[in-house]
């Protein structure tokens, strides 16, 4: 099973020998890849829709992992009980939906559980939700596919609630700390965020709103990128 840079970055955060729950599995490429590479003990691959569940079952059977990867139709983490060393992946969904799924989940506030999240939008809101609910962001990665840059968050429950700066919510503290891992990618990521912020500022100016805070954030972004 070949997987792309985005799913490879997600996979890199899955612990060796973990029990995996892949929420919104769709084609089940991620669990198949991890099973094929001997990285997981077993997996529950779930999806809210029957079509993706069927597609997952077909791919899993074709690859010979039907005894290791169970497919279940479910809304988010409904009915799921984490075991010891459980890694929960929620990838390819909006940040607001990921927050909703986490909010309704049971048993995830445990040191045994790791959350690996790849939101498609509203990433700062997801970071804020994690910090406000006692989850510590242990690491983050950026992955580029064609022109798109994806953000992958690895979090675990610590019980310590935090509030962090707007810049940290926008870029991710770990992405900032590790910017030298791939400076070109980090600069492109800053530029993408700056472009969105400039657009927001232009809209606010048209409406006559005060843009002071946004302009200060834009300057912080410029400095992060240049440093
Ligand atoms: C864009 S696909 C992402 C597939 C895969 N996780 C990936 O990252 O490549 C999103 C999947 O999430 C499923 N989904 C959407 N809302 C869901 C929910 N509340 N619970 C479980 N699955 C959901 C959709 O049916 C779809 O198959």
Map the helices and strands.
Blueprint: H1 5-12, E1 18-23, H2 29-36, E2 40-47, H3 50-62, E3 69-73, E4 86-93, H4 95-104, E5 113-119, H5 123-132, E6 135-145, E7 148-157, H6 166-171, H7 173-177, H8 183-206, H9 212-226
Parallel strand pairs: 1-2, 1-4, 2-3, 4-5
Antiparallel strand pairs: 5-7, 6-7
Helix pairs in contact: 4-5, 8-9
Bound molecules: S-adenosylmethionine (SAM).
Under the CATH scheme, the architecture of the largest domain is: 3-Layer(aba) Sandwich
Small ligands present: S-adenosylmethionine
Spatial strand arrangement across the major sheet = 3-2-1-4-5-7-6
Uncertain spans, ≥5 residues at pLDDT below 50?
A: none
- The gross shape turns out to be elongated
Per DSSP E runs of 2 or more residues, the count of β-strands stands at: 7
Q: How far do the termini sit from each other? A: 39 Å
- What percentage of residues falls in helices of 4 or more residues? 40-55%
What's the CATH H-level homologous superfamily of the largest domain?
A: Vaccinia Virus protein VP39
State Rg.
Answer: 19 Å
Overall average pLDDT: 97
Top-tier CATH class of the largest domain: Alpha Beta
């Amino acid at each position: 099973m070949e997987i792309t840079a985005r799913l490879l970055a997600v996979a890199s955060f899955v612990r060796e020998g973990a029990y995996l729950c892949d929420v919104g599995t769709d084609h089940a490429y991620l669990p198949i890849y991890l099973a094929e590479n001997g990285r997981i003990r077993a997996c529950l691959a779930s999806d809210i829709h029957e079509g993706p569940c069927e597609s997952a079952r077909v791919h899993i059977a074709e690859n010979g992992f039907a005894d290791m990867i169970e497919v279940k139709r479910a809304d988010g983490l409904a009915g799921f009980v984490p075991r010891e060393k459980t890694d929960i992946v929620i990838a390819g969904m909006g940040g607001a939906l990921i927050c909703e799924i986490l909010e309704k989940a049971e048993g995830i506030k445990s040191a045994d559980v790791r959350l690996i999240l790849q939101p498609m939008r509203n990433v700062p809101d997801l970071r804020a939700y994690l910090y406000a609910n006692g989850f510590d962001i242990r690491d983050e990665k950026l992955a580029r596919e064609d022109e798109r840059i994806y953000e992958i968050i690895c979090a675990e429950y610590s019980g310590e609630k935090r509030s962090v700066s707007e810049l940290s919510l926008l870029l991710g503290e770990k992405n900032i700390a590790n910017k030298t891992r791939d400076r070109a990618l980090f600069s492109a990521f800053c530029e993408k965020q700056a472009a969105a912020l400039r657009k927001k500022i232009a809209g606010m100016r048209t409406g006559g709103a005060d843009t002071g805070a946004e302009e200060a954030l834009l300057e912080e972004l410029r400095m992060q990128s240049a440093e």
